[in-house]
């Protein structure tokens, strides 16, 4: 561990202490202040949109500006606006009924902020995946410490300085550093820990949280399949899948990881997807609208996966591109791999890049079995014009979320909980679900001075005999 990292670790311990005492001084942040917090966050995005998009692009080598505007800035601005609009309703104490045997009395659920929460974010949408949980935590009235990914240091630094201008340090703060800092961060005794990243590290985070009995949300990854049925027009499926897969060069947790297509249609679907990519990008190697791979390590890994499939006899499809410029710009052109070997890394690991295997299936049940035999993915997509068929796919599989005839965009519907299940994660957020993630629902039962429950104490009278009837 470097000296700077050791210092960061000391700093975060004292920040946690000061956030905890600030929280105790204001346990129930009033609604007006929470709304102002959300406004400040949205303003910060609006006023610094160019600088934030530049920082993200610097981190990636090239990040399509339009992608940063849509998926990072606009997303957070809308999310904050939605939370502000519904906050009054979300914060309200809920009354619940009281059974006759417990009457008279009133029961209610108070929605209280959990306290000081930690957010660990990944590099693929380095701004949004730190800020969307922040929106939820601010709406819930919490204090927040954020640990962004070390792979996107420029974005980490700009978040740190902009949030320091907009919020007191004992309200919202950013801690930068690598895995050692991340590890120490997840060992802090937060009131909730919110982690987005790989399933591997997620397991370590869950163990660190368990040590302190800190409640934890895990937003992890996995292999999200797209099932194309014969009923769905191939070109329309190709358009949708090509868009979702090549957005951010496939570095999206809910991107279609691989496609299951009816036997015999794999190649024509693959060619249609490559045609879509050709239409979207002049030459992916030189077009700024196509995002680069975040690091040399990730670039080498993806190339290694393609080569392994090629050696294993799979056919590789790519649009025309300038191979030298692609290498220099750390870009992997949109790539389709037809029927890679089942034991290849393309079929056993989350790909997280613009490489799309298409494998054939005989019957729809074989396709759903393929999915059901593996870890539950973060998302599943089905393309079908037949409602019963789509329903059958949903019935026979499980995934964090799902899209019918569409991909990615279920996560933009603010009232849908966003999260995984099993190996793809636990817990969820967005909209009210995010507010609830950082909220403790506290049960309160009130009675007056006199209540018949007193008759349930010794010395027992006749009352207890009626209780079980
Ligand atoms: P990662 O797990 O390598 O890193 C995520 C964060 O964890 C970083 O901030 C990192 O510094 C920190 N970290 C690393 N080692 C740590 C440790 N030992 N203890 C604590 N923290 C540690 O993930 P990544 O490569 O940045 O992101 C890619 C993965 O994230 C993919 O699997 C993707 O599917 C997943 N992801 C999921 C979602 C979702 O919403 N479910 C969104 C985006 C990405």
TrEMBL record:
Catalytic residues as annotated in Swiss-Prot or TrEMBL: 219, 253
Domain Aldehyde dehydrogenase positions: 7-444
InterPro entries noted in UniProt: Ald_DH/histidinol_DH (IPR016161), Ald_DH_C (IPR016163), Ald_DH_CS_CYS (IPR016160), Ald_DH_CS_GLU (IPR029510), Ald_DH_N (IPR016162), Aldehyde_DH_dom (IPR015590), Aldehyde_DH_NAD(P) (IPR012394)
Entry-linked CDD domains: ALDH_CALDH_CalB
Keywords from the named record: NAD, Oxidoreductase
Biological processes, Gene Ontology terms: aldehyde metabolic process
One Pfam family of this chain: Aldedh
GO molecular function list: aldehyde dehydrogenase (NAD+) activity
Cellular component annotations (GO), alphabetically ordered: cytoplasm
Keyword Cytoplasm part of the UniProt annotation: no
Family membership noted in the UniProt record: Belongs to the aldehyde dehydrogenase family.
Protein name: Aldehyde dehydrogenase
């Amino acid at each position: 561990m470097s000296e700077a990292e050791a210092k960061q670790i000391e700093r975060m311990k004292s920040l946690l202490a000061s956030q905890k005492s600030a929280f105790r001084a204001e346990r129930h942040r009033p609604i007006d202040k929470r709304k102002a917090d959300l406004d400040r966050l949205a303003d910060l995005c609006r006023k610094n949109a160019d600088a934030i998009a530049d920082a993200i692009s610097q981190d990636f080598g090239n990040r399509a500006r339009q992608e940063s505007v849509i998926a990072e800035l606009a997303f957070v601005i809308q999310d904050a606006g939605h939370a502000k609009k519904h906050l009054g309703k979300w914060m309200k104490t809920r009354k619940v009924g009281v059974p006759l045997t417990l009457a008279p009395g009133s029961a209610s659920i108070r929605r209280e902020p959990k306290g000081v929460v930690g957010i660990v974010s990944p590099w693929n949408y380095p701004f949004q995946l730190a800020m969307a949980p922040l929106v939820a935590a601010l709406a819930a009235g919490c204090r927040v410490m954020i640990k962004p990914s070390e792979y996107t240091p420029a974005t980490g630094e700009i978040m740190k300085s902009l949030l320091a201008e907009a919020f007191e340090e004992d309200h919202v703060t950013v801690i930068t550093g690598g895995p050692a800092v991340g590890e120490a961060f997840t060992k802090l005794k937060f009131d909730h820990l919110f982690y987005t990243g790989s399933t591997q590290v997620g397991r370590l985070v869950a163990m660190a949280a368990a040590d302190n009995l800190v409640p934890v949300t895990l937003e992890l990854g996995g292999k999200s399949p797209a099932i194309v049925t014969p009923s769905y027009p191939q070109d329309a499926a190709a358009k949708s899948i090509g868009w979702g897969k090549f957005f951010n060069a496939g570095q999206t947790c809910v991107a279609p990881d691989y496609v299951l297509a009816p036997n015999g249609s794999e190649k024509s679907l693959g060619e249609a997807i490559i045609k879509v990519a050709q239409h979207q990008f002049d030459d992916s190697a030189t077009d700024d609208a196509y995002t680069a791979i975040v690091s040399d390590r990730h670039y080498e890994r993806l190339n290694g996966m393609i080569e392994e499939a090629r050696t294993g006899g799979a056919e590789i499809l790519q649009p025309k591109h300038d191979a030298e410029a692609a290498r220099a710009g750390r870009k992997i052109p949109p790539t389709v791999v037809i029927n890679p070997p089942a034991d290849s890394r393309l079929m056993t690991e989350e790909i997280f890049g613009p490489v799309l295997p298409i494998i054939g299936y005989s019957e729809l049940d074989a396709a759903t079995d393929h999915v059901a035999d593996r870890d539950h993915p973060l998302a599943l997509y089905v393309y079908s014009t037949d409602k019963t068929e789509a329903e059958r796919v949903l019935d026979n599989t499980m995934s964090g979320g799902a899209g019918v005839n569409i991909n990615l965009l279920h996560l933009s519907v603010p009232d849908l909980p966003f999260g995984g299940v099993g190996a793809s994660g636990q817990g969820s957020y967005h909209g009210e679900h995010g507010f609830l993630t950082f909220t403790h629902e506290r049960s309160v039962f009130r009675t007056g001075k006199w209540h018949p429950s007193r008759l349930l104490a010794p010395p027992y009278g006749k009352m207890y005999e009626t209780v079980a009837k």
